[in-house]
Amino acid sequence: MFEQLDKPEKRPQVSVAMSLGIFAAYMVGAFGSILLLIFLGDLPFGIQITTVVSYTYFAFWYIFFPTRGMERKYDFRSEAVQREISRLLIIHFAFLTLVLCGETFLFKIKPRLPAYWLTEYGSDHTPLYVIVSIVAVVLVFFSEVLISRRILSRSVKKDESQSPSEWGGLTG
Prior knowledge:
The chain is mainly α. The chain has one domain (3-162). It contains six helices and no strands. Helix 2 (16-40) runs antiparallel to helix 3, helix 3 (46-64) packs parallel to helix 6 (128-162) and helix 4 runs antiparallel to helix 6 (128-162). The longest helix has 35 residues, at 128-162. The radius of gyration is 21 Å and the shape is elongated. 6% of the residues are buried.
């Protein structure tokens, strides 16, 4: 905290080209997720397979590339990022397991829910079951993203503080 008083942290600049590229990647992921759901939705475990692929795709983009409010990009070639990959994979599998267990639980209790959870009502015409499902997955997803980005941020800052700045600190 006090080190920020001396020099404010520089915010990384995100170019228009990078923003458009990331937007295109999000659109490809959304379109691909919809296609997967259409083709696999009626198969046994089709929704779970779609969830795994879509969740992993979007988690990758949100963790490693700049987004609104989180403008830092993490490069895979960086040693600091490579050191954390195994930890990030473990975290991803844990959160993905949580999402799949929650999804399975919601599928299991769906027949036992009251009718007002499953029927359209009000002005938005969205069943409460769908709203609860989406909110739960979004909360889990952004928890994973924030935890993973925090780990990467700490690792990169630790690396930057340990390495001499432009080798100017070495005397020969």
